[in-house]
Amino acid sequence: MADKVKAGCELSIVVPVYNEQQNLQRLFEEIKKVVNTLQISWEIIFADDGSSDDSWATIQTLNRQNRVVKGVRLARNFGHQYALFAGLRHARGRAVVTMDGDLQHPPHLIAELVKEWHKGFAIVHTIRQDPADYSLLKKITSKIYYRIFTFCSGVNIQPGMADFRLLDRSVLDEVLQFKEAGLFLRGIVQWVGFNSTAVRYQATRRSEGKSGYSWKKMLRLGWDGISSFSVIPLRIATAVGLLTSVVAFSGILYAFYSKFVSGTAIPGWASSVAIISFLLGVLFILIGIIGEYVGRILIEVMNRPRYIIAEYCNDEGETLQTSAEVEWSQIESQPDHLA
Ligand code: UDP
Ligand code: MG
Questions:
Q1: pTM (2 decimals)?
Q2: Distance from Cα 212 to the centre of ligand 1, integer Å
């Protein structure tokens, strides 16, 4: 597969960017300092996820000043996972490191990731140790989520494993084959296998700006993760349906017993109304879960592009529109906007 990579380099670094204008310059300087000590050829690809600040202008400036800097700009905010994927498709390295643009993923760790890669590991994960002052709610919800995810999918993701990791080209080429619309890269990377290791690091607060991950986006990502790796929620729905049917049936038997055998039937409607509304509630939840999967099937069947690339900065320091992208990239059988 490696021959697919034209004019490749040793290491690609892919950074999804959403309103990170204040962080980009510093992030680039810090990464450059670390990678220069490694003495390997490299490139950095900023994937601008439709930022509304000056992130793209900053990326263009960095691109004009440094040949290692490249950029792609998505036509709007498609989401972190899609920006990452767009960046990954343009990576030409023999290994690729993905990391956030807010300096929460410490650049000095790149050296350690590369060291592990040189030892022969195809995937080098990172595991974040949360700082003591990190939001308790986020800590607890993420722990519970990964437990549920692992239970449902059988794919083991540890809390603290995010999209900061190194992938060997062999793994990256497999990951790029995934065509689903509800992308959950951390699940996909675990799912494909290969030999892996992990390094731990202490998380810090984001350098500047504010988090681009709203609760809504986080819930979306969470559900994409579970629904793309498991149908267990549907089985749970069936089990809950069976259980409530058994309870309801026992209620009916009891009603007959009270009326005809013990003769102690209570002329009340409250209990029946309670049971009926309870059962209806359960029913709607079950229909909702099924509906979520049907919705997902619709989205997958439509097979729309997962994201649209508006512009990119190439290695000549030029910014071009997508129409010319095929010529620039030359590494893909398919232009990115058809991805
Ligand atoms: N990001 C993105 N698109 C989005 C939201 C975030 O590309 O819609 C990027 C963001 O610029 C950063 C990374 O994804 O590089 C992680 O996002 P963020 O730091 O906002 O999330 P948090 O660390 O708060 O979970
Ligand atoms: Mg962050």
A1: 0.80
A2: 5
How does pLDDT run across 94-117, given as a tens digit for each residue? 999 999 999 989 999 999 999 999
Q: Where are the chain's structural domains?
A: 11-230+305-330, 232-302
- What are 109's two structure tokens? 């760790």
CB 48 near ligand 1, within 6 Å: no
Task: Look at ligand 1, atom 24, and give the residue with the nearest C-alpha.
Answer: 211
Per-residue pLDDT, 81: 94
C-alpha to C-alpha distance for 123 and 117, rounded to whole angstroms: 7
- Angle at which helices 215-229 and 80-90 cross, to 10°: 70
CB 146 within 8 A of CB 158: yes
In 3-state terms the chain splits into helix, strand, coil percentages (rounded to 5) of 50, 15, 30
Is 11-230+305-330 CATH 3.80.10.10?
no
59 Cβ contact partners less than 8 Å away, ≥ 6 residues apart: 17, 24, 46, 48, 69, 71, 73, 313
Q: 183 CA distance to ligand 2 centroid (A)? A: 19
Q: What is the pLDDT of residue 306?
A: 87
